[in-house]
Amino acid sequence: MNADATNFTDAGSFSSLAALDAIVNADLDGTHKYVFAVYNGTEDINHNGIADDHGAGILAWDDNGTGITSVLMLPGVATLAANDLALPPPPPPPPPLA
Question: Domain total for the chain?
């Protein structure tokens, strides 16, 4: 399912992992399938042993209406819109052979 204005929301910016997790789970409410937020805290949210996640975009997806299915951490991505996630339409079929 492509993201669009009806199933994508921008949750804003968060400085704690607990607050980020709570709002993302709340926003993935069965109507919204995609939630984007920016993490501006000092916790090591990707568990690489370095607290270097400040300013990372977080895109969460829900495929069944029960909460987070998967999460992408997008270092350096501060904005994201539904049309950034939409696939372009397929190209037209080739003309018939003569």
Answer: 1
